[in-house]
Amino acid sequence: MNVFIVYAHPEPRSLNGALKNLAVETLTGLGHAVEVSDLYAMGWKAQADGADFLDRADAERLNYARESGHAFATGTQTPDVIAEQEKLLWADAVILQFPLWWFSMPAILKGWVDRVFAFGFAYGVGVHEGERWGDRYGEGKLMGRRAMLSVTIGGREPHYFERGVNGRLDDMLFPIQHGILFYPGMAVLPSYAVFQVNHVSDERWQEIAAGWQARLHGLFDEAPIPYRRQNAGHYDGRQVLKSGLGAGEGGTRIHLVQPGEPPERPLARKIAYETEAL
Amino acid sequence: MNVFIVYAHPEPRSLNGALKNLAVETLTGLGHAVEVSDLYAMGWKAQADGADFLDRADAERLNYARESGHAFATGTQTPDVIAEQEKLLWADAVILQFPLWWFSMPAILKGWVDRVFAFGFAYGVGVHEGERWGDRYGEGKLMGRRAMLSVTIGGREPHYFERGVNGRLDDMLFPIQHGILFYPGMAVLPSYAVFQVNHVSDERWQEIAAGWQARLHGLFDEAPIPYRRQNAGHYDGRQVLKSGLGAGEGGTRIHLVQPGEPPERPLARKIAYETEAL
Fold first, then answer.
1. In a 3-state reduction of DSSP, which class is residue A20?
2. What ipTM does the predicted assembly reach?
């Protein structure tokens, strides 16, 4: 299988660098093909702006989403963005490796998302009419792929439980796991999170490495997070969760299929997307 | 009073630009002093990397937090970062004006946070010993200031309710409002969110503008979001919410003081911080 690792840390000898290297080695050893985008080493342009579009539809006033759709449709995206989209389409699994900075991804990685997840590619996909609000949340051009976050965290694990002072890690990652990865169709595995990373002894590194290798071995077998798919019957035509579902849950958790609930319906059709625009 | 607006949109004639301009005009008209950081116009460096430190403590291996603390303490931060920290210290209120891109802030604004919110300035502040885990979540160097997000959103409002397909806006903004703004001590007002911004008629703009002006008039009067302060008695020495508090709530909401709960205790002392390092 093909695995694409997007790696965002400025120091090659960091824990993030070590986890990235271990993933390459482990996955290659398992017979997978691996591609890495090392965003810092590539000098990835983080800010999304008008320079991202080689042939503006409106040269006077920049509407980023509109220009993104125009550039994607006309083949006038910048080469760096096209290369990343090709890696995403090539991949069977995508791993984002990054340190949790201010409870989210580093700016350079957010800029990878802002620029690469184009209109027509990662959003604005599929039919929007009547009660159908496009192909997203479980459907989309990245459907059929798996995704996983591998995150290093300075703080202590109990601070990231629901009642911990920072709040629950899965709530914090929801905008990324649900809003960025599941949105364009990827099945998202639980994150691999390592806490208290400021001082890692050799002994602790052995544990961290073993845990990471175990997760990498399960990359194509583990059950994904059971986020509800938008077009599989649990949301109504207004894109609101139907009453009776998510009972007893609150916050982001109501968007997970709960044990005992009526199953989602199979998706109506197998979706084949045109990718010639790339 | 002094108001600092951090504005992150690449198009001056955007709705974000109009909201920023209206804020400057309205707040100035109310007699406040206003400072704007227009991140795109400033060419703000988004990625956090080794170039942020003019005199590295360790020139061989980059530990970003450690170098951030060293640079802050020794006055060797870059001038762009120092200027933003000075604006934050000058301000009585801070407004972040941005479009919601992929359920979070644009990369350029995340990069403003990653670089400006230095160790010793926004985190790593105060005594860390025994059960005291530093000054954060309601205490810190930005204590006494107010903060508010003003966010434009492409989607429809019902999609951002708790049962809407995207999940609740306040859950999505929690890592920013709680994790970035409340963490270094600011009191956070509810966000001003405008939905379905792709086509805004003149009539709708009048409504949006009136709503925004009303919020700006209340900037120093409105009640902040009642996030629990770390050191005010609701969390135990492990930084975990004490049992009995947050009953009946789940997710991020358990970190809000609930009606009927025992009040937080007053903070033990008025904190005076040294800012000479700037």
1. helix
2. 0.96
